[in-house]
Specification:
Layout: H1 2-12, E1 18-21, E2 24-27, E3 34-38, E4 44-48, H2 55-71, H3 84-87, E5 92-95, E6 118-121, E7 125-126, E8 132-133, E9 136-139, H4 147-167
Parallel strand pairs: 5-6
Antiparallel strand pairs: 1-2, 3-4, 6-9, 7-8
Length: 168
């Protein structure tokens, strides 16, 4: 549910949708969800799947992609089949549930420009007023995104999660 809320929020804040393609600024209209998983050999791999606006279908596709990536012994090369333009429809996501961090530095992808946002979150913990807290890292192209947009993203994620729990 968190991945769904985060990606829906990304789509609602224009500054997170800007990319550089062939020297021009473009605005993506869709996202291709992907996230890291640990396979049976304790190697990292990538789960990649098609977007769905329906939470149940999104979750079904995500679970299927996770199972497929976990079963692979080689790196998932689905990215190799994507066109350079299709690669821009991504947001890089990782979850580090073992760590409670205060910052993280994401590796920079070699897709032509470091314009694809990278997000990570860590271990949930109890916060004030019975609310859950989690460390959350955002790395984005500073020509498109600054602190105000990250604030907007945090507010939108909270609103998405609240909405999903009410729909529940």
């Amino acid at each position: 549910m968190l991945l769904f809320a985060v990606l829906r929020s990304i789509l609602k804040i224009d500054n997170f949708r800007y990319r550089v393609f062939e020297g021009e600024v473009i605005k993506i209209d869709r996202l291709m969800p992907s996230f890291t998983v640990v396979n049976h050999n304790d190697d990292l791999n990538f789960a990649l799947f098609d977007w769905s606006d329906d939470l149940r279908e999104f979750a079904r596709r995500g679970v299927q992609a996770r199972e497929q990536a976990c079963a692979m012994t080689a790196l998932n090369n689905a990215y190799a089949d994507l066109s350079p333009r299709a690669c821009k429809d991504q947001v890089f996501i990782t979850c580090i549930p073992w760590l409670d961090f205060t910052s993280i530095q994401h590796p920079t992808a070699t897709l032509g420009a470091p314009d694809i946002p990278s997000l990570a979150w860590g271990r949930f913990r109890d916060g004030p007023d019975g609310r859950l807290q989690l460390p959350f890292s955002v790395q984005a192209h500073h020509g498109f995104v600054d602190g105000f947009h990250i604030h907007q993203l945090a507010q939108q994620i909270a609103a998405e999660l609240n909405g999903l729990m009410i729909e529940g």
